[in-house]
Design brief:
Blueprint (H helix, E strand, L loop, with lengths): L6 H11 L3 H4 L9 H9 L8 E6 L4 H14 L4 E4 L11 E3 L2 E2 L2 H18 L3 H15 L4 E5 L16 E4 L7 H4 L3 H8 L9 E3 L4 H13 L4 E3 H4 E8 L4 E7 L5 E6 L5 H18 L6 H9 L1 H5 L6 E4 L3 E4 L5 H13 L5 E5 L7 H5 L7 E4 L10 H10 L4 E3 L3 H11 L5 E5 L2 H7 L1
Parallel strand pairs: 1-5, 1-6, 2-5, 6-7, 7-8, 13-17, 14-15, 14-17, 15-16
Antiparallel strand pairs: 2-3, 3-4, 9-10, 10-11, 12-13
Helix pairs in contact: 1-5, 3-6, 4-11, 4-12, 5-6, 8-9
C-alpha cells in the first residue's frame, strides 16, 4: 500500500479503485446501506453533529438543494451542501457556504482512511457521502442540505435523521434499479420519509400521491404539498433570468424576485423551496421574506450552481441544460420551442441506460443535430445514437467528441441561431 501525496493521486484512487456509477452504471449501485453504516460508525457518526435537510426526487433536486442552501447561507447559517454528480470538478459535490472542499481535505480524508477503503471497497458514492459528512462535522457546519444520489430508500445518504425531508417530483429514470413504474420509483424515493419528520412534496401526481400519503401515515410524518401552499408565476422571461411572483398561503404573503434561473421548470422548484423554507420557519429557523428573496436571487453566486438553462455565449446564442430523462427533456424542448431563433442546432449525447426511443421522440424534428458522446464508458456510441435518431426523423452528423460537435455547430450557426447542448450531464460538463 503506498501513501498518496497529491490531490490528483487521491482523486485517481477514488475514481479508479472504487466502483463508480458515473463510469460503470448499475454494477456500482449497492442495494443496501451496510457500507454506509459501517463507514459512518468508523468515523464516529459525523452527520449527528449538524441539522440536515434531505432532498430526493427525479428532477429538480439539484436546483432545489442549491436554492435551499443559498437561502440558509443568507440567513447567516454555516451551511453544508452535498450534491451529485459534479460537472467540472469533483470538489463541487461538497461545499460549505458555497466554497468547495479544499484539495488538501480530500487528500487528508483518503490518506487517513485508505486502509479501510481498500478493505471495504465501498462504492465511489458511499465514500463521497462519508467524506462530505466528515468534512461538514470537522468544519462545524450548523445545517447541511443533502441531496440523494439515485433513489432514496437504499441511497447512501439515507442513514441521516433530518429535520425536514423534501421530494421534488417523480419521473421514469434509472428504471433498471428503481423500478419501471412511477409507483415503484415513488416507493424508493419515499424511503427518505422518517418518523415524525415533516416532508414537503413538490408535485401532486395521481400515480404517486397514494404512495407518499401511505408512507407519511405509517411514519407519522406531517405531509406538505408545495403546490397547495405556494404559487410561483413567471411575470417576465429574460435570457439569463426571470421575474417570479411568489404567493404563499402562510405567513410569508407575497413577494417578487429576480431569479437567475430562466426556464419554466424552475417555477415548480421555487414552489417546493419556499414551501420547505416555510416549514423550516415553523421548526424555529429564523427566516424572513427578505432573506428568502436574497437567497433565491443570489443562488448562482452563493452556491455555484451550473448547467441549468445556462447561457454560455451570445451571437450565436449557446445554451446548455443537464435535463436527461423524459421529464427533464420535455421541459427543455418546451423551453426551446419558446425561444425565438432563426435556426436551431442541437449538440446531443446520451448515456446508454436511458429510454432512448422515449427521449428521442420528444426532440424537435426541425433542428440540425450534432450527435456526440462524452468521454465516459457509460456513454452511448454516437453512431448508434444517430441511427436511432434517424428512425425518429432527426437528421445530423456524428462527432467523436463533445468539443468537436460544439465547434461544428458554432461554425454552421448564424448570429441569430440557437445552439443547444444537452442529453446528458456529462455532455454538458464537457461543454462548460
Amino acid at each position: 500500500m503506498h501513501s498518496m501525496t497529491t490531490y490528483t493521486e487521491a482523486i485517481d484512487f477514488l475514481m479508479t479503485r472504487l466502483p463508480m456509477y458515473q463510469r460503470s452504471g448499475a454494477m456500482a449501485y449497492k442495494n443496501n446501506l451496510d457500507n454506509s453504516l459501517a463507514l459512518d460508525a468508523h468515523m464516529g457518526h459525523p452527520h449527528r453533529k449538524f441539522k440536515i435537510i434531505h432532498v430526493a426526487g427525479t428532477n429538480g433536486k439539484g436546483s432545489v438543494s442549491h436554492m435551499l442552501a443559498a437561502v440558509l447561507q443568507k440567513a447567516g447559517w454555516r451551511t453544508g451542501l452535498y450534491t451529485s454528480p459534479h460537472l467540472r470538478d469533483f470538489r463541487e459535490r461538497i461545499r460549505i457556504n458555497g466554497a468547495c472542499i479544499p484539495e488538501a481535505e480530500v487528500l487528508r480524508f483518503v490518506v487517513n482512511h485508505e486502509a479501510l477503503l481498500q478493505k471495504m471497497s465501498p462504492s465511489f458514492f458511499e465514500m463521497t457521502v462519508a467524506m462530505a459528512f466528515d468534512h461538514f462535522a470537522r468544519e462545524k457546519v450548523e445545517v447541511a442540505v443533502v441531496e440523494t444520489g439515485l433513489g432514496g430508500r437504499l441511497d447512501s445518504t439515507n442513514i441521516v435523521h433530518p429535520v425536514l425531508s423534501v421530494i421534488t417530483n417523480i419521473g421514469l429514470d434509472h428504471t433498471a434499479l428503481l423500478g419501471d413504474t412511477l409507483e415503484q420509483i415513488a416507493l424508493e424515493k419515499a424511503g427518505i420519509i422518517k418518523s415524525q419528520v415533516p416532508v414537503v412534496l413538490g408535485r401532486k401526481q395521481a400515480a404517486t400521491r397514494g404512495v407518499f400519503e401511505q408512507k407519511a401515515l405509517e411514519q407519522h410524518a406531517p405531509l406538505i404539498w408545495a403546490e397547495d401552499e405556494v404559487l410561483a408565476l413567471s411575470l417576465e422571461q429574460h435570457l439569463r433570468w426571470q421575474k417570479v411572483q411568489v404567493t404563499c398561503k402562510s405567513q410569508s404573503g407575497e413577494f417578487t424576485c429576480r431569479l437567475p434561473l430562466p426556464g419554466d421548470y424552475q417555477l415548480e422548484n421555487v414552489q417546493t423551496v419556499v414551501a420547505a423554507l416555510d416549514e423550516l420557519q415553523r421548526l424555529g429557523f429564523p427566516l424572513n421574506e427578505e432573506v428568502v428573496r436574497e437567497g433565491l436571487e443570489g443562488v448562482l453566486a452563493l452556491t455555484g450552481l451550473l448547467g441549468r438553462w445556462q447561457v454560455l455565449s451570445e451571437k450565436p446564442l449557446v445554451i446548455c441544460d443537464t435535463g436527461h430523462n423524459e421529464d427533464g427533456v420535455k421541459w427543455v424542448v418546451r423551453q426551446l420551442l419558446k425561444s425565438s431563433c432563426e435556426k436551431l442546432h442541437v449538440v446531443w449525447g446520451m448515456v446508454g441506460d436511458k429510454d432512448l426511443r422515449g427521449i428521442l421522440q420528444l426532440l424537435p424534428a426541425h433542428a440540425v443535430y450534432y450527435f456526440t458522446q462524452a468521454a465516459l464508458p457509460r456513454s452511448l456510441d454516437a453512431g448508434k445514437l444517430q441511427a436511432q435518431a434517424l428512425l425518429q426523423g432527426l437528421q445530423g452528423q456524428v462527432y467523436p467528441s463533445v468539443a468537436e460537435a460544439v465547434a461544428a455547430a458554432k461554425k454552421n450557426a448564424g448570429d441569430n441561431d440557437l445552439i443547444f447542448i444537452g442529453g446528458s450531464t456529462f455532455v454538458v460538463a464537457e461543454a462548460l
